[in-house]
Amino acid sequence: MELLAEIVISLMIVLSGVFALVGSWGLVRLPSLMTRLHGPTKATTLGVGGILIASMIYFPMFVGHFSAHELLITLFLFIAAPITANMIAKAHLHRQGAGIDPNPADDIRENLPEPDKWATFNKR
User: Fold this and answer.
1) What is the rounded distance in angstroms from the CA atom of residue 90 to the CA atom of residue 16?
2) Is the pLDDT score of 65 beyond 80?
């Protein structure tokens, strides 16, 4: 049983490391803020969540006690990361509409709706 747990923990750590590496690479290499949001919010979140799940398997199997800290951190991470990305994207769109911080890589200026037609933006 311990061998199976070691294999599962090892696979979780390696897979999580791959997700974190891909997410970090996407954060560095993608051209604009709107595309860069996907790296940390999708892949890196899965990477950190996988490491925490591996920790939740390790401690009851080999140390002998369960701690809910990893579970709470994982839940908070999976709840907070998409909300944070949504707020960053909205702030970026609002700044683009005001003519601040132009980024030619994402062509957002040509495709923006009129500011009074946005559901969350009322320019006054």
Assistant:
1) 29
2) yes
